[in-house]
Specification:
heterotrimer, A mainly alpha (357), B mainly alpha (291), C alpha/beta (275), A: 357 residues, mainly alpha, two-stranded antiparallel ribbon, C: 275 residues, alpha/beta, 10 helices, 28% helix
Chain lengths: 357, 291, 275
């Protein structure tokens, strides 16, 4: 063995590769605590706060999905409202047929995932800008078609006919819990997806598509999967919307404002990071609460901030935090540990330009 | 034979759609930018016209003399600053930024104007009246005028691109940006010119639309952007006259759709659009390895 | 190779000077402290194998890349931070690798674009038509319909009509038949006669040796040889080109890649040709 080969072999024994820098058990515990506290809210806070939080859940779920699409798969969809609307309408239709709206929610989400397949077939071959417009035309077309069916409310919409006969406080609480469940599942789903091999493909695509393709990654398949998952997520959010509002109006549930909001939240929080949508949602809720009576203003400010961040801080607010504190709440990358550093980790790999994926 | 009248209406309105579409096509052809705020710019043109007319009391038909050059300048400035900055990052960023711009514009209009529809009422009786061909066909002078203007603009644009010095520069930059730089051309300036043209034409379209119909802050994206896109897609990418063809096909399908059922006017257009995407996406298929 | 017949007045001042130029492509170092001086009226040839950094050097001088270190001086002025189009306007014009003609434009339109910001000088579109006698008849054709050699001629013409002072030619011979290459290089004297200076990059060493007044060999971003064709021996060129060292020496490379261009015509093993 040459001297070089020998050193390499010896080093290979001592170098470790782990998924996270700090003990992921701590982050997991922290997340669990947060979820438990949130779950206890209905016993602590009033219905008004619950409603606001349900709104936040919806936005957080949507933003996570949009982040998945644009930040990882490079798909800028301006038509996700199609799934929001479809999710709401699935709940309405199932409810008309006597299914409880709570039971209908997961079915609606799955239904949207199925609907995503033919939609993907229509738009998948298109270049980025045309993809965006096509998704939007598709959403508008679906809206126009749905409006033609008076049995589900036609152009004016319809209330859910079979709401459970519970007191309003209990109803709020159940809605809240299901909203919490949807959000937790959505975030968990995104996390697990990105941690998997598919996630590796997506992160590679995020960083350099040409290189990803040439290394054999099944980019097309990865993108389709992402589109379907985003369809499920947005559909769940739409179903949640129907459950919380108890009425489904086409112009409301298919509104392009949803796409605007989820895109801005995702961009501001940080595209291409899992933590970004959480941060973005917090910003969004603060803005919305403080500017409540000035409806258009929060969108204007949100939009301007998003534009500035898109140009100057590509990875958004979370990216800025990450750069300075090197924190990952959701470890999906890999860290290389130098045997000589005694557990301090090869942070220098980042400084030398190597990327922590 | 009511159909014939509607088909003719559809053909004529195709001219308006071509006005909407040619700027979009130009910006994409030259700088590979899809400006999602394109439709809103038409509406801004319309609102500026409303304001200008209110202040100066010039005849509605002449409002474009002030608005169009103004929008051209706005286009150049916006391109050299915001859009170029986004372009320097990536194509994705331009989509995000123009989308943001679109939402900001619409909501700013909602905030500062109001959500009601506006119209550039044309009072001149000659323009609002129509003339008849035979007993079945009635054509509004305004529509005919708009169509003629669209053809004139497209012809002018085509001539500009193929014969003038700047037109050559634009085509050269569109072909190969670096090689153009090596010939001494500042592509950022050329991009600005292209954007200026795009903003000017779409503003003209917006004013025309305001005369013919009504607009509100959301018409930009609801209607104009979609129509512009549909016209470009249907007519084929990269062709100026194609936008007229696309506009006409769109207009005719909408007219036929309206015949079938009053509310299906737009739906018919969208379905044709989607059908073209599926059946004939030449030029739209993402080439492997390009953004 | 004999010294050029015409000497510009300021022959003691280089018209183009590159000092300690270092260029990175991301983390890859493409050029490592390259220096050169080109005097007016010279034909300065940069040779080297694939990936040696030759095109990177020309592109950096043209302004399409920013160096990480070093400077470029043109006519006494520091142009290192000047944008590429401004450099072209002031007289450094490059004929890029692969021709890079404007595909949707005709032959004449390509020339017209080249002349957009032309300096005053002897070269006009008409004169380019004189230089390439076939071109005038085909001037309304789109360049996509031309052969490789014809495209190369149009690309050179497009650069000439700008009336450059320094004409940079990047891999003229790439993808062209030897006969065509020779014919194109045969135009060089006519071009030089109008007072231009030429900086060219060539993989085909024999061709470079035939036309150059000075040459510089690059290997992996570093200069391995510099001098006039009469000063260097074929063996020296071979060693510099491939990076061969005498056997047993430290850090010996196994020999560079064979200098074969895409069509296998540009690179000929020097030991056979440069005898």
């Amino acid at each position: 063995m040459t001297a070089v080969a020998e050193t390499t072999a010896r080093s290979a024994e001592k170098y470790r590769v782990t998924r996270s820098r700090r003990n992921v058990a701590w982050t997991g515990l922290g997340a669990l605590v947060v979820v438990v506290v949130l779950a206890l809210f209905p016993y602590i806070v009033g219905a008004g706060t619950e409603t606001i939080l349900v709104q936040a859940f919806i936005i957080l779920t949507l933003a996570s999905m949009w982040n998945l699409l644009a930040g990882y798969a490079g798909l800028v969809s301006v038509g996700q409202q199609a799934f929001v609307g479809l999710g709401a309408y699935f709940v309405l239709i199932l409810n008309i047929h006597n299914l409880s709206m709570f039971t209908a929610l997961p079915i609606a989400a799955i239904g949207c995932g199925v609907a995503a397949l033919p939609m993907w077939w229509l738009v998948s071959r298109l270049r980025s800008g045309y993809f965006a417009i096509a998704t939007w035309v598709l959403a508008t077309t679906i809206l126009l078609i749905i409006e033609k069916f008076p049995s589900i409310g036609g152009g004016t919409g319809m209330s859910l006919p079979h709401t459970p006969s519970l007191g309003s406080a209990v109803l709020e609480a159940y809605t809240y819990w299901i909203g919490l469940a949807v959000t937790v599942l959505a975030l968990l789903g995104v996390y697990l997806l990105l941690r998997s091999r598919l996630g590796l493909v997506l992160t590679a695509v995020r960083d350099d598509e040409v290189a990803a393709r040439s290394s054999g990654a099944r980019v097309g398949l990865a993108r389709m999967l992402v589109y379907v998952v985003a369809g499920i997520g947005c559909g769940a959010a739409g179903a949640l919307l129907a459950v919380s509002q108890l009425i489904v109006q086409p112009s409301a549930v298919f509104s392009v404002q949803f796409t605007a909001e989820m895109a801005f939240v995702a961009i501001i929080g940080g595209l291409g990071t899992i933590e970004g949508p959480i941060l973005g949602t917090i910003v969004y809720m603060i803005l919305q609460q403080t500017l409540q009576s000035y409806n258009a203003w929060y969108l204007i400010i949100l939009g301007l901030v998003a534009m500035v961040i898109a140009i100057f801080a590509r990875r958004g607010l979370w990216g800025l935090i990450d750069e300075h504190l090197h924190v990952r709440l959701f470890p999906v990358g890999y860290w290389l540990w130098d045997p000589g550093s005694r557990g301090r980790g090869l942070g220098s790999a980042r400084r030398r330009g190597g990327r922590h994926a | 034979m009511v159909w014939v009248n509607d088909v003719i209406q559809g053909i004529l309105i195709g001219g308006l759609y071509a006005l909407f579409a040619c700027g979009l096509s130009l910006m994409f052809g030259v700088m590979k930018v899809i400006n999602l705020a394109h439709g809103d710019l038409a509406i801004i043109g319309g609102y500026i016209a409303v304001g200008v007319i209110a202040v100066t009391h010039i005849p509605v038909l002449w409002s474009f003399v002030i608005v169009v050059p103004l929008m051209a300048v706005l286009g150049y400035v916006l391109q050299r600053t915001v859009i170029q900055a986004a372009l320097d990052r990536s194509i994705l960023t331009t989509l995000l930024v123009t989308f943001g711009l679109s939402v900001v514009i619409e909501n700013a209009l909602l905030e500062f104007v109001n959500a009601n529809s506006h119209s550039l009422g044309v009072n001149d009786a000659i323009i609002t009246s129509s003339f008849s061909i035979g007993s079945q066909i009635s054509i509004a002078y305004l529509l005919l005028l708009i169509f003629v203007v669209a053809v004139v603009v497209l012809t002018g644009l085509q001539y500009f691109l193929s014969r003038s010095r700047y037109g050559r520069m634009i085509r050269a930059v569109a072909d190969d940006r670096e090689a153009a730089q090596l010939s001494g051309i500042d592509y950022r300036h050329v991009f600005g010119i292209a954007a200026a043209i795009a903003f000017a034409t779409v503003a003209l379209g917006g004013i025309a639309y305001g005369m013919y119909s009504q607009f509100s802050p959301t018409t930009g994206t609801d209607t104009i952007l979609l129509f512009a896109f549909a016209a470009v897609v249907i007519g084929g990418l990269g062709s100026l006259w194609g936008t007229l063809v696309g506009g006409v096909v769109l207009g005719v399908s909408q007219a036929i759709g309206a015949q079938i059922s009053g509310s299906d006017e737009f739906l018919a257009g969208y379905i044709v659009f989607l059908a073209v995407l599926v059946l004939r996406p030449q030029g739209l298929i993402a080439r492997r390895g390009t953004a | 190779m004999s010294e050029p017949a015409d000497r510009a007045p300021k022959q003691d001042e280089p018209i183009l000077e590159v000092r300690e130029l270092t260029v990175h492509h991301g983390q890859l170092r493409a050029l490592d402290h390259i220096s050169l001086r080109v005097f007016p009226g010279e034909v300065y040839a940069i040779i080297g194998a694939n990936g040696a950094g030759k095109s990177t050097l020309l592109r950096t001088i043209a302004g399409l890349h920013q160096p990480t270190e070093g400077s470029i001086r043109y006519d006494g002025q520091d142009v290192t931070r000047i944008r590429p189009e401004r450099r072209a306007i002031s007289g450094i014009v490059m004929v890029p690798e692969g021709r890079r003609l404007f595909g949707s434009l005709t032959v004449e339109e390509n020339l017209q674009v080249g002349a957009t910001y032309a300096r005053k000088g002897p070269w006009t579109i008409e004169r380019v038509y004189e230089l390439f006698s076939w071109m005038k008849d085909r001037r309304a054709q789109r360049t996509e319909q031309l052969s490789g050699g014809e495209q190369q001629a149009v690309a050179i013409g497009r650069a000439l009509v700008a009336n450059p002072r320094v004409l940079m030619l990047d891999e003229l011979s790439l993808g062209l038949a030897p006969v065509v290459v020779q014919r194109i290089y045969g135009m060089l004297p006519q071009i030089l006669a109008t007072g231009l200076t030429v900086l060219l990059v060539e993989q085909d060493v024999s061709q470079a040796l035939r036309v150059a007044s000075h040459l510089q060999c690059l290997l992996e971003g570093r200069t391995t040889l510099q001098g006039t064709p009469s000063e260097v021996t074929p063996e020296q060129v071979e060693v510099a080109y491939f990076g061969l060292r005498s056997p047993g020496g430290p850090g010996g490379t196994e020999g560079g890649e064979p200098p074969v261009s895409g069509v296998g015509l540009g690179g000929v093993v020097p030991s056979e040709e440069a005898r």
